[in-house]
Amino acid sequence: MAPTKAVVADDHLASPAGGKNTPITNTIPISNAQTDIHGLEIWEGTLPIIDLGGLHGPRRSDTIKQLGHACQHYGGFMLKNHGISERLLNGIMSKAREFFHLPEEERMKLYSPDPTSLIRLATGFKDDNQNVFVSRESLKFHCHPVENYVNLWPTNPPSYREVVSEYCVAVKRAEITLLEAVFEGLGMERKSIDQILDNHGQYASLNYYPTCDKSNLGLTFGLRGHTDPTILTMLLPDEVPGLEILQDGDWVPVKPIPNTLIVHVGDVLQGLSNCRYKSLLHRVIVNSEKERLSIASYCYPSNDTQMGPPKELIDDDHPLIYKDYTYEEFYTTMWKQRLPDAARLDSFKVSAA
Ligand SMILES: O=C(O)CCC(=O)C(=O)O
Ligand SMILES: [Fe+2]
Questions:
Q1: Most buried residue, 101, 125, 210, 299, by most Cβ within 10 Å?
Q2: pTM for the full predicted model
Q3: Which domains does the chain have, with CATH numbers?
């Protein structure tokens, strides 16, 4: 079956150490971490820090439990020891920066308003209803399997295709390792990811947030509050803060940790887990001094994947919340309703029938 052509809304919207990637460890001491009641290390009061390396060895079952707690209580986590080398993290960030610093007419060659395009540049826009400007410019593209798409990618800046493909493959590897652990933690029958998610895909977005004039800061967002219509989103931020998550009714900033990814639970995992895990509501704010970049990798299942929760997750304490629906039905509905967040799943609730 052909891979799904997922549509990711504009305004929503390893095995570590495999292959030639050298595993990295955080050399910067994580001094602002505290511990929560589950014993998880929490970064600056925001998200737990998970060590992906813990899945390979005697700490595997503890790490799987930590992952489960993180997805259940926080909707996301900071991921260290993900197996993607520092060279590659810096490499993709530089390529993204070079791309967004190309002249506008060069970037605009990739512009398309069609969300089903296999690659497209999306620009900032004004939302007249809410009288706000959403300033993110992004280059979005399908990337798994990479050889099916790489020929559509820009050749300018030089080496763009090489570096971006290497990153996409490496982040996908980390994603699969994580997902296997997440599904195991949910107590789902041990099946391969391919069996659960069929011909799953990957979609990436290089995100660019220009600086904003001080006088317009109050009316400008990088991205408005949203959840991602994905299973998981793996986000590589640069060093400039800007991402905020909604926790207990407040927007709290997530400060980046060098060489560390930020992972969001997406709507699809909320549905698959019968709501044990909640998708993370997040937004991006801008500032007047420094541009910001981030690289998002979105993992989504094939069009035909049945998105209802598996039977192992249903019992008297956990009655069925979502009926069976396919991923195609989910994103078609999302696109039609243009709902910004996990409310997109509401029409698939058993009680909505
Ligand atoms: O740039 C960020 O920190 C977040 C990007 C994001 O939310 C997305 O691409 O869905
Ligand atoms: Fe997002």
A1: 299
A2: 0.90
A3: 30-352 (2.60.120.330)
